[in-house]
Design goal:
mainly alpha
């Protein structure tokens, strides 16, 4: 299945073949559009920096962290450039709760971020990465939909 977050899935008029959206725009659209999973650890770091929250690569002894992981602007290291003066996490929790209509999302990447859980490289290992590294045809891996309505 072709990914939608590169903004080239369905364009009218068709977009230029070489154009891709800037990574910050793509990340923001994914957050506010309800994307629950992140493609890789680097995207997680970019997302966390945008939201102004603590990650493993932030020196802990230099910052004061709130209970939800948010770092106030006066305590932020230079690497974290966030537009938020107060934590955006309660708003995102409410937005995601409305979008999910009661369906759980706490085990997803964004769910863990909103619960102040730190993600690691291991959180991004999946069957497709493993299959590609083993030269396996990813299309041959069976897909099951756990939300089939009966």
């Amino acid at each position: 299945m072709k990914p939608c977050d590169d903004l080239t899935l369905y364009c009218i008029p068709s977009s230029l073949a070489f154009w891709t959206p800037p990574p910050p725009l793509r990340m923001q659209l994914n957050i506010f559009g309800g994307q629950l999973y992140l493609p890789d650890y680097e995207t997680y770091l970019q997302t966390a920096r945008f939201l102004g929250i603590y990650t493993n690569d932030t020196p802990r002894d230099l910052v004061q962290i709130q209970s939800d992981g948010f770092i106030l602007p006066k305590h932020r290291p230079a690497q974290i450039k966030s537009p938020f003066d107060t934590t955006p996490l309660p708003f995102l929790k409410a937005l995601l709760g409305l979008r999910r209509k009661g369906m759980g999302y706490s085990s997803t990447h964004l769910g863990k971020i909103l619960r102040a859980r730190l993600l690691t490289y291991d959180d991004f290992d999946n069957v497709y990465d493993t299959a590609e590294s083993m030269d396996v045809d990813c299309e041959s891996i069976p897909y099951t939909n756990r939300y089939i309505h009966r």
